[in-house]
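Bug report (template v2)

What were you trying to do?
Predict the complex of my protein with calcium ion.

What happened?
Run completed; filing so the output is reviewed.

Input:
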Amino acid sequence: MKRIAIVEDEPFMREELCSMLEKAGYAVQALTDWETVGNSLVALAPDLAILDLNLPGISGFELCRDLKQKTPMPVLVLTSRDQMKDELQAFSLGADEYLTKPCRKERLLARVSNLLKRYEGRTNLLEGPGYLLDRQTYTLYIHNSSVVLPKNQGKLLETLLSAGNALVSAEVLCNALWGTTEFVDENALQVNLTRLKKTMANLDMHQKIVVVRGVGYRLEAEVAECADG
Ligand code: CA
């Protein structure tokens, strides 16, 4: 059962949303503690969040931005603000859908279902210890935050992570970086690996890149020694 979180301060609207979505087969949770709603949502990690913009004491825009920075969860904005600039701002902050109130039940349910399907179909999230990597955008979600990795670092991490515990040869890494194995540039590969190692250390990731000389590279838990090849 898909879980949907609702952030809506008007009690009647909230009740209606809850009952409509429950009837449609979703597990619904409404959050009403406005001071902690951002953190609660992150901790709850629902499959979808429905967000009002005019909320008591907090800005729905900020909440939206915060959520999209910290988690890969889809956000549907449902608001009475019908100005184009509000809609554009919400999208620029990462909102996935924007609907204005009053909204027909059928329309809302269709968008919800569509959005959930879109996200379910995304096989682009790779999971590492304590982090997620979006292999399309190279966004790394870690420690309740996110960073977009430079493309080459993203490609290297993706390739290493996909291999699990297996060793990945220099050829495979070069192919991931430059799309060819005809010309393996070990120096350029080293430069990119060094940058990724630095990034991983700075982000306090619980993994390190380990080198097995002449064979390849792999990710290991942080307790392992990191040999410099
Ligand atoms: Ca409101």
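What did the reviewer find?
The helical segments are 11-23, 37-44, 60-70, 84-92, 105-120, 151-162, 170-178, 186-202. The pocket of calcium ion is lined by residues 9-10, 52, 54-55 (CB under 6 Å).
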